[in-house]
Design goal:
By secondary structure, the chain is an alpha/beta fold. The strands form six sheets. The chain has a seven-stranded mixed β-sheet, sandwiched between helices. Strand 4 (75-79) and strand 5 (87-92) form a beta hairpin. It is flat, with a radius of gyration of 31 Å.
């Protein structure tokens, strides 16, 4: 802290100045003022002084925009009048009578900080709100103000000024004393906390605020109104039109003379609104059957977000769609909008949208209930995570004073000492700290969150500035150390152990080893002597601890053995002292360091990749490890693309995309005919062919490997017969000959199912596989690839050709970890979360791999996968019924 009347401290991610002076003279974007609820600024010493300085126009604005005043705890917004600021936020505050009144004070402060972010302001000035004539205890005012500032996750806001009146020496001392509590402190959770009504989803800020949509500043404002686009309906459309001016209606009349359909939207300029564009949509009333209101709203919200993102919009504002005259239940509106927003924020590859605002109309009687419902839906019930604090989807490691800290093991490799430490990664005093981040540069969990919080906002700012498109797997994004005790931070992106990978991509353990080696190479080239790694891959990424330890240590040993000239002498591997599996981590890393293996992989995996080992016996861990890393070949019964070559070799040897339709042997034909005829006995099979598509089966094989990696990490999945309320094993398998079933894998719940289709889609499916995007978007279990164990169930979806023949596939499907349901869930686009069972979860990565519907409204059991490469259309059946 510096001396004099202007004091500076960093609180959370913001610079905070405590000063004495006249707040009306501050050169800031916005000034906060305490006022009466009737907004009569001429009454009250502070607001009267502000009115005298700013001029009568701000009183006129209050009377015009807020004719009935505001409630205690709310803010009203006016221009700065004659002042140099761009806006003034007037917060309604009554005289202090009890500690309960402090809630209104907190609401004003939080709303002001929140609105400043919404308005894109950089600087804001607060007085000692309520600490004078209104009688609020100055110490509590100071505590509440600093606490609210600490919780801000800033996008635009950089600086907060607390301005104490020049002669108010006692209050200045109180605020100065509170500021000193933050001097030099590192608040590890501050950079990841979000203020009330402000939720972080993926890399997007979502705000739920009470107000008027027509006064919100955003790139795009979304409006729901009449389908004929005539805005004089005494509703939300008219309120926007009244502010925008007649040009908006004129533009809509010219561009959309016939109106729009439900679920679509028209685009107009914002004119006098504080936005560039308005998306005018139309939704049916809740009681309507056609079109379905839920599906229509979902399509509408999805389209608005996707379109705004494509046009590089930074901020988009929605009303609480359907609530009001359309009679949508509040919880349904919140649920649909929440699911759409979560899905967009977590599944869109490149997001330009930074902020999504949901505006609850302040004229609603139950606006607080509506606001609460939307906040709860968007939060998704985020639980407290073991070993850390969960804050709106971000898991932050516990403070360093609560974790174990010690040296565990050390060994020299040449001139380099490798030390295994237990402690806090962010506290290491080294030249380089290595950090694992997401591909979009976010650092929202585990060690990365702790490093981000300790480094301060500069780390994220530098990453976003220098790597605006994110980074690729295995790349290094080097930044300065900022507030960390290091020269540089090497930030890298690693995929989870069993994440989906593109064809031909390196296995995750090799990517990890290459990344560690690259970090050492770069640090050595820079002349550094010390570098610290976390236990990469062992947290969020779900690597088996032994695999992560093997890869990391091998890369370190390899570097030591290959570099005759090296400056690095100190290499640290830091295990987080609060880890629930600390004992296992220590054991495995200590073992690997003591062994000093430079291959980076176990002898089994190494020999498998070189094709030097036979297939281990099923039922052993070696078998699972083998399947995780084997070179993928075709099934042994294929006759064109035989298993003598690998699939990659076949793909190189033949034309790209070449497929063959092979006649099946008598045993296979009889086997399929038996399974088919079990429930469709009156049908006559005309032909059965095996589809041999090397490209497509390679992709399917890689997906099988991903599921085997998941088994290796988490244990074997429950088969359908062991899932509660499920009706036993998959029936198709009971009728198929062992020559077919012996090369399916029960470990990953791989089975055969029936799937009927249209004749004109047969060639597409044989060439490209199943595509969930072409499926019925209103399917009972969402948009996925459906498999049936009863041919009669599939037949209900079949369409015949000109020869009256129907096509049906016998499909291999790898179900993995199965989610069981008895209820229709039409909105599914991927399997639910294993932890909280929500359809679109942002707080956990533990997802099911498929959905099984059994019982309830489902007469036939149905199985659905949502990734196309979890299925392979192996047999094509043509039949007459």
């Amino acid at each position: 802290m510096s001396g004099g009347s202007r004091q500076f401290v960093v609180v959370g991610s913001l610079r905070v100045f405590v000063s004495t002076g006249d707040i009306t003279q501050q050169q800031v974007d916005v000034i906060v003022n305490s006022s009466r609820s009737d907004l009569d600024l001429s009454r009250g010493r502070a607001s009267k002084a502000l009115l005298d300085a700013a001029g009568a126009d701000i009183q006129d604005e209050c009377e015009e925009d807020y004719p009935r005043g505001i409630q205690d705890g709310e803010i009203a917004i006016t221009s700065g009048g004659l002042l140099s600021c761009r806006a003034i936020y007037h917060g309604a505050l009554s005289k202090y009578s009890s500690p309960d009144d402090e809630q209104n004070l907190e609401k004003i402060i939080q709303s002001s900080l929140d609105q400043a972010e919404t308005d894109g302001f950089v600087t804001i000035a607060f007085p000692a709100l309520g600490a004078g004539y209104l009688g609020y205890p100055p110490s509590r005012v100071a505590e509440i103000l600093f606490s609210c500032i600490q919780q801000v996750t800033p996008q635009s806001l950089k600086e907060v000024r607390i301005v104490i009146f020049t002669t108010d020496h006692d209050n200045f001392k109180v605020f100065l004393r509170e500021a000193k509590k933050y001097s030099g402190a590192r608040t590890r959770t501050a950079a990841l906390r979000a203020p009330q009504d402000y939720i972080r989803i993926g890399n997007v800020n979502v705000k739920v605020m009470v107000g008027e949509l027509s006064k919100v500043k955003a790139g795009v404002i979304v409006c729901s109104g009449p389908s004929d686009l005539q805005l004089n309906n005494n509703g939300l459309s008219q309120s926007l039109s009244d502010v925008a001016g007649p040009q908006m209606q004129e533009e809509l009349n010219q561009k959309y003379p016939n109106g729009i359909d439900y679920g679509t939207f028209a685009v107009s300029g914002g004119y006098k609104l504080k936005c560039r564009f308005v998306y005018h949509g139309a939704l049916p009333k809740w009681a309507t059957n056609d079109p379905d209101p839920s599906d229509t709203m979902e399509d509408f919200v999805d389209s608005c977000l996707e379109t705004a993102n494509q046009h590089s919009t930074k901020t988009i504002a929605f009303p609480t769609l359907g609530v009001g005259s359309l009679s949508y239940p509040i919880e349904q509106s919140a649920k649909i909008m929440g699911e759409c927003i979560r899905y967009f924020c977590t599944s869109t590859f490149q997001i330009s949208i930074q902020t999504i605002i949901i505006v609850v109309y302040k004229g609603c009687r139950n606006y607080s209930d509506i606001q609460k419902e939307f906040i709860e839906e968007l939060n998704g019930g985020s639980p407290l995570m073991a070993g850390g604090l969960s804050v709106f989807g971000a898991t932050v490691l516990a403070p360093s004073q609560n974790i174990v800290s010690r040296q565990s093991y050390s060994r020299k490799f040449g001139n380099m000492t490798v030390t295994l430490l237990v402690g806090d990664m962010a506290e290491q005093q080294v030249d380089v700290i290595v950090n694992s981040i997401a591909s979009d540069l976010t650092m929202s969990s585990g060690v990365a969150a702790a490093i981000s919080a300790a480094a301060g906002p500069g780390l994220s700012d530098e990453l976003e500035r220098n790597f605006p498109m994110g980074i690729k797997e295995g790349d290094i994004a080097a930044t300065q150390g900022h507030d960390l005790q290091c020269n540089e931070v090497y930030n890298g992106y690693l995929s989870p152990w069993y994440s989906r990978r593109s064809t031909g991509a390196q296995p995750p353990d090799l990517v990890l080893g290459d990344f560690v080696f690259a970090c050492l190479e770069r640090a050595n080239a820079s002349g550094y002597s010390s570098i610290a790694f976390p236990a990469l891959g062992t947290g969020y990424h779900k690597f088996p601890v032994d695999a992560a330890a093997e890869s990391m240590v091998a890369a370190i040993v390899k570097f030591s053995s290959q570099r005759s000239q090296q400056t690095i002498t100190d290499v640290r591997i830091v295990l987080y002292g609060g880890s629930s599996n600390l004992t296992t981590l220590e054991k495995e890393f200590k073992h690997e360091i003591s062994q000093g293996n430079c291959s980076g992989i176990t002898p089994l995996i190494q020999s498998v990749r070189l094709g030097m080992t036979p297939v281990p016996s099923r039922g052993t861990r070696q078998y699972i490890q083998y399947r995780c890393c084997e070179t993928i070949r075709s099934p042994p019964n294929w006759t064109k693309f035989t298993s003598k070559k690998t699939l990659k070799e076949w793909i190189q040897a033949v034309n790209s995309g070449e497929i063959h339709f092979e006649k099946v042997d008598q045993t296979t034909h009889a086997s399929i005919e038996k399974a088919f005829g079990n429930t469709l006995g009156n049908a006559q099979i005309v032909n059965i062919q095996r589809i041999e598509n090397a490209d497509l089966f390679l992709k399917y094989g890689e997906e099988r490997q991903r599921l085997f990696r998941k088994v290796n990490s988490e244990g074997q999945f429950n088969p359908p017969e062991r899932i509660r309320s499920s009706h036993g094993p998959v029936k198709v398998m009971d009728y198929l000959h062992p020559s077919m079933t012996n090369h399916t894998e029960s470990y990953i719940n791989e089975y055969y199912f029936f799937h009927a289709t249209k004749p004109d889609l047969v060639d597409i499916i044989c060439n490209q596989g199943f595509d969930p995007r072409l499926a019925n978007v209103r399917g009972r279990l969402g948009t996925g690839v459906y498999g049936a164990e009863d041919a009669c169930k599939s037949h209900s979806y079949a369409v015949c050709n000109n020869q009256q023949c129907f096509p049906m596939f016998l499909v291999r499907m790898s179900l993995g970890d199965i989610y069981m349901t008895q209820a229709e869930t039409p909105g599914l686009k991927r399997p639910p979360c294993k932890v909280c069972n929500t359809k679109v979860c942002i707080n956990h990565q533990e997802m099911y791999d498929s959905v099984m519907a059994n019982g309830g409204s489902f007469f036939h059991r149905e199985f659905v996968i949502y990734d196309r490469y979890q299925s392979y259309p192996e047999y094509l059946i043509w039949y007459k019924a």
